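Practice problem: predict the structure.
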Amino acid sequence: MSDLVWWQMTLIGLLFVWGGFVRSGLGFGGAVLTLPFLLMVYNAPLVYLPIISVHLLFFSGLTILQAHLRARRALRGGARRSDARRDDARRSDARHDDVAAPEAAGTVNWPFLRYAFTLMLVPKLIGVAGVLTLPATVVSSFIFLVVGAYAVSYILQRPFKSNSPRVDAALLMLGGYVSGTSLIAAPLVVPVAASRVARHELRDTLFVLWFVLVAIKLAAFAWTGVDLQWRQHLWLLPCAAIGHVLGLRFHAYTLRADTAVFFRVLGVGLLTVSVVGLVRMVSQSMG
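Answer:
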């Protein structure tokens, strides 16, 4: 990245702010909604993927830790309120217990994670091998094609989903492979998770899933000698941190509001970028 000009560096910094915002705001999409734009600025997947991987490990771990601390505080607060209610004249406390229950019970669905890891691990390893051996143009084209399909599903408001255990398993296995190649598996995995995980558990459960999958990919990068771009983290990590803080506020909004319009607009933007990116790749190969 040392050969980039100032406007390219500025765009990359802004895109990492955007990626941090999406990651903490939705619990997924930090890569799938950022990588196509980054490739338009500088077409080098193996430069961005290690940076995005480290950011995901850092911020997902931070978010899970914060959720755990909130759950412990809620549990202690619920115990204190229960003690106070026992002093009242036999008043029912069921309603108050229900309010505190989601936080007190935790925000990670471990049974789903065991189910997902069982299906995704082997395809994940195959995908990691693919991204290390395939040319950058092939990986970039694959990313644009996949993101374009995701974008159409957002525009039509028909995300990939099923009520069939076999289709769910197929989506998770495909998601594992896509995660190994490009870290953009969220639109395949999230519909399965959303059908099996409570709403208040979804974001943190996905963060644990991404943490483990990305750790595998990052270890493969380190083992094969891929440059992890540590110097670029000095300025890109603060950019992602700004987006992370903004995304935490947006997450509170998404728990209360319908985000269909947001995803439709986002789908139009992603489809435009994917088409332009594919045209650019074809023109470069013909030139």
